[in-house]
Structure formats: structure tokens, C-alpha cells
Automatic annotation (TrEMBL):
<feature type="transmembrane region" description="Helical">
    <location>
        <begin position="241"/>
        <end position="258"/>
    </location>
</feature>
<keyword id="KW-0653">Protein transport</keyword>
<dbReference type="InterPro" id="IPR005665">
    <property type="entry name" value="SecF_bac"/>
</dbReference>
<keyword id="KW-1003">Cell membrane</keyword>
<keyword id="KW-0812">Transmembrane</keyword>
<feature type="domain" description="SSD">
    <location>
        <begin position="125"/>
        <end position="290"/>
    </location>
</feature>
<dbReference type="InterPro" id="IPR000731">
    <property type="entry name" value="SSD"/>
</dbReference>
<comment type="function">
    <text>Part of the Sec protein translocase complex. Interacts with the SecYEG preprotein conducting channel. SecDF uses the proton motive force (PMF) to complete protein translocation after the ATP-dependent function of SecA.</text>
</comment>
<feature type="transmembrane region" description="Helical">
    <location>
        <begin position="9"/>
        <end position="30"/>
    </location>
</feature>
<dbReference type="GO" id="GO:0006605">
    <property type="term" value="P:protein targeting"/>
</dbReference>
<feature type="transmembrane region" description="Helical">
    <location>
        <begin position="156"/>
        <end position="178"/>
    </location>
</feature>
<dbReference type="InterPro" id="IPR048634">
    <property type="entry name" value="SecD_SecF_C"/>
</dbReference>
<feature type="transmembrane region" description="Helical">
    <location>
        <begin position="264"/>
        <end position="291"/>
    </location>
</feature>
<feature type="transmembrane region" description="Helical">
    <location>
        <begin position="190"/>
        <end position="209"/>
    </location>
</feature>
<keyword id="KW-0813">Transport</keyword>
<dbReference type="InterPro" id="IPR022813">
    <property type="entry name" value="SecD/SecF_arch_bac"/>
</dbReference>
<dbReference type="InterPro" id="IPR022645">
    <property type="entry name" value="SecD/SecF_bac"/>
</dbReference>
Length: 296
């Protein structure tokens, strides 16, 4: 397959996906979890009632408006997000639930995050993503420092940075849309998933770039960079796809059979792994030709 010949098709697909993701984030915004906004998350096992009934009871009887509610069919539990409540308020609400709504109700988990802590978590999450992006790019530039022709080493780092941003924006845009339509909230699990995706996708990119570097050093015809890239991709594509498929199969099993608390962490990983593999093969390598010094 001549990937370089059709590079503008692959790059066009990525540009369209990134543009759609940016639109999604700017138009819908993010529905933030309590990690970033502050509040309480209460997990209750309540059988035989619907989500609408639970929400109505909290809103009208307990006077505790819910920000979000999700149901885990695996253990008949509800994850309820609401404003910060004290331990005394929680105990009183639980007693009211058992006496006037569901006698068999059982508390599975509860935790609160204050607004000051949530602001600190948000700053830390943003800093972590920025540091990873810059650190990985500098590392790639250092690893490829011995190559100056036909593409300078720092450009390998720049291309890696571009593909990492690509791999972060697409899952982020997806979650912005899901937050609007399905009330999914982003939290620290989402940030951790993005960091894992960046680490996995940069590994794929390094594998392809390293093979390109080897073939450039072996070849006397550095002007034919497109041929070298095509050959290098052909030598590594099976390994990259097989590795990604193995991870995708495991993540798919976790998504459909795992606990609710991991469901959207896994979904972020699935989206990031898929598009990360695509970018390492069809985006990062073809972009090297855009920085080709010697086009003879």
C-alpha cells in the first residue's frame, strides 16, 4: 500500500476529525465531574425503582437536587452526583430513603470533594497533560538527534507533538458530545486515560520512526524519502496493528463486562488507542515528507 501517495486522504481525515472535535468542545463544552467542580458522589443499591423515581424522590422529598444519575445494572446500584452534603445530612437522607422510599436501600460508597480541592485537581490535570506533551516531544528530538538529513531531529519531536494533540483532541471531542447527549461527566479518570493513550500512541510512533531512521541510515538515496517511509511502514504495520488489536479486545471486554466506574475510562482508552494507531501509521510518517529538505 502506497501510503505516501495517498497521504492527503489520510491527513484530510485527521483534519476533519480534529475540526469536528474542536467544534464539539467549543459548542457543547464539557460536563465536569465532582473532581473538577466539587460536590458529592453517592452510590446506593436500590432495587425495583427507576431512575426517574429516584430523581423525583431526591428533588421533591429530600430537597437534594441531583446533578446526574447513572444506573449500574450489574449490582442494581445508582451513582448520584449532588452538591456537597455533610455526614449528618447524608445519614438523615439515607434514613428517609429506607423509611419512605426503599426499605432495602444500601449505601455502597460516598465521597465529597470541596471546591478548593477541585480547583487544585483541575490545575494539576492541565499541568500533567502539558508536561507529558512537551516531555515526550523533547525526548523524541533527543533520540533522533543523530539524524539531520533529510529531516532534522527536532522535526520528529514536532510531528510527535502534533500527533499527540491529535490523539487527545479526538477522544476529548467525543466526550464533549457524549456529555451533552448522555450526561457523561469528565473526571480524573478521563485525564488518566488520556495520559495512558499518549504513552501508548507515542510508543507506536517511535516504532515506526525508528524503522524509518534505520532505513535512512542504510540507504544512500536519501532523496527518495517517500519510498523509505513506505517500506518502513510496511515493515512495522503488522506489529502495530496486532499490538493495538490485542489491547482493543481487552478494553472491549472491560467495557461490556467491567464495572460502571471503569466504563468511560475504558471508552476513552478505546477511542484513543484506535485513533492513536491510525495517527502513528497514517499521519505521523506521511508528515515527515512535508518537512523534507531535499526534494530532488
Amino acid at each position: 500500500m502506497n501510503i505516501i501517495k495517498h497521504k492527503w486522504i489520510f491527513l484530510g481525515v485527521s483534519i476533519a476529525l480534529v475540526a469536528a472535535s474542536i467544534f464539539s468542545m467549543s459548542y457543547f463544552g464539557f460536563r465536569q465531574g465532582i473532581d473538577f467542580t466539587g460536590g458529592s458522589l453517592w452510590q446506593l443499591k436500590i432495587e425495583g425503582v427507576s431512575s426517574e423515581e429516584v430523581q423525583s424522590f431526591f428533588n421533591t422529598k429530600l430537597k437534594l437536587p441531583l446533578s446526574s444519575i447513572s444506573f449500574d445494572a450489574a449490582n442494581s446500584s445508582y451513582a448520584l452526583t449532588l452538591e456537597n452534603i455533610s455526614d449528618a445530612e447524608r445519614q438523615a437522607a439515607l434514613a428517609s430513603i429506607k423509611s419512605g422510599f426503599a426499605k432495602t436501600a444500601e449505601e455502597l460508597d460516598f465521597w465529597s470533594v470541596s471546591p478548593s480541592v477541585s480547583d487544585e485537581i483541575k490545575r494539576g490535570a492541565i499541568m500533567a497533560i502539558v508536561m507529558v506533551l512537551v516531555g515526550i516531544s523533547l525526548y523524541i528530538a533527543f533520540v533522533f538527534r543523530k539524524i539531520s538529513q533529510p529531516v532534522s531531529s527536532w522535526k520528529y519531536g514536532l510531528i510527535t507533538l502534533i500527533t499527540l494533540v491529535h490523539n487527545v483532541l479526538i477522544p476529548a471531542g467525543l466526550f464533549a458530545a457524549l456529555g451533552h447527549y448522555l450526561q457523561l461527566a469528565v473526571d480524573t479518570n478521563f485525564i488518566v486515560a488520556l495520559l495512558v493513550v499518549m504513552g501508548f500512541s507515542v510508543h507506536d510512533t517511535i516504532v515506526v520512526f525508528d524503522r524509518i531512521r534505520e532505513n535512512i541510515l542504510k540507504s544512500r538515496h536519501v532523496g527518495h524519502l517517500g519510498d523509505i517511509i513506505n517500506r518502513s511502514i510496511g515493515e512495522t504495520i503488522r506489529r502495530s496493528i496486532n499490538t493495538s488489536l490485542t489491547l482493543i479486545l481487552v478494553l472491549s471486554a472491560l467495557y461490556f463486562m467491567g464495572p460502571l466506574s471503569l466504563k468511560y475510562f475504558v471508552l476513552t482508552m478505546l477511542a484513543g488507542t484506535t485513533f492513536g494507531t491510525y495517527s502513528s501509521i497514517f499521519v505521523a510518517s506521511p508528515m515527515l515528507t512535508l518537512f523534507h529538505r531535499d526534494r530532488s
